[in-house]
Amino acid sequence: MRDRIKLNSFAVELRRDWELNPYSPIDLFSIVLSKLPDLTILFYPMSDNTSGMCIKNIDLFRNNSNDQNDSKSDDMVVCINSNMSRGRQRFTLAHELYHLLFEDDQRDLIICESSNKDDSELEANIFASYLIMPYEGLERYYKTNNIVRWTLEDTIRAEQFFQMSHHAMLFRLREQEFITKEECLNFRKVLIGYEARINGFSDDLYVQSDESKKYYSLGKYIRLVEKAFTENKISDGKRDELLLDAFRSDLTFNFNEK
Q1: Between β-strands 50-55 and 39-44, what pairing exists: parallel, antiparallel or unpaired?
Q2: pTM of the model
Q3: Are strands 76-81 and 39-44 parallel, antiparallel or unpaired?
Q4: Which of 57, 95, 135, 156 is a plausible cystine mate for 128, CB 3.0–4.6 Å?
């Protein structure tokens, strides 16, 4: 298994490749879609045991176009459990990026379940934590905010700054020995959404997606459908069918009002 130093270096190097420093929070979904043009992200409800999955080397559109190129596709799909909180969804995206970009695993389909404790899943979890908040980022945050002893309010402020789930933040604070085991357990017991609100923050980070985003998609697939339509490779009806398959009815019902 790769050690934490190596996994943190992967996270920092990826940030640098994306022209981001290791200290600041990142809008992960926007950055990923900008930097990985072959990626499609699907959101839909899954079982409580499944946070997400990823698929490599899938040809998203071959069966719906005249392109008969048999070369291996670079298309990638990440599926995210929309029943999980926004913070957890960000973590899942970062977790799946490890499988797609850094892992030696040759499987084209990887399903990520909480019951799976193999090295691959542990590495992906650690990488995800460091991508969202590198080791250096937490150290600088601690120093620049003059934190002497971490309180629950300090923890919530850090979570909001880095847009990190409460569970993942506590794991990192404990790992870097900023809090004791007892403090970690006590902070974990709180109603985190309520605590965020009474500290003046939104609870968006800790709640599930809105119903309108429980089934949704972003990324390359949408562009491929539109490209095929504008190049007259598919009909109006086929365009709408493909977009509906991707949970994007918002792009079909008002199509004639453009």
Answers
A1: unpaired
A2: 0.91
A3: parallel
A4: 95
